[in-house]
Specification:
single chain; alpha+beta; three-stranded mixed β-sheet; rod-shaped
Length: 188
Amino acid sequence: MAKGFKTGAPVKIDGAEDTQAAESAGTPAVDIAAVAAALGAQPSPEVAKLMAEIAELKARNAALESVKQAEQEDATLGVANASHPANKVRMRITIDESADANDIFEVPVGVNGRAYLIKRGLAVDVPLEVVEALNNAVTDKTMSERDPQTVRLRPTGTRKARRFPFQMHGMAVDADGNRLMEPLDYTL
């Protein structure tokens, strides 16, 4: 426990109070800077040393925090996660309306913990990860041909087809955040 001047009271250094020491001593904490200013006195060498050490630790902590933040930004550059997309690039797409009345009107797309509900038939701006997810959402379609003898369709094999066919209209926002297409406005 740090003690300041010759009072023996717990000290408050740089706004941080030693409350445990204050409670055990039964006295309020003393702000060294305020007392020193009021008395025109200097803190004891022990307290001055502690104050210098705290100032140095705060400076080192600030430097470490800035390095940590820079490393986190570098680590997430180009990688999408739940808190942000990989970059600012947005593509304008329209998911085709379905001929099947039982198909859902809004297409759910999940990318790295982020969920998107995209309405069919409306142009929307989405991150590149969503376009990639839609491209990878495929299903097997059965191919068939007419049997000349029975005039019935017979299956001849399968092919891959998009689960949610869509049209890509181009890049709406570039990597620097510059809008390349007019913003969408669906207000009535």
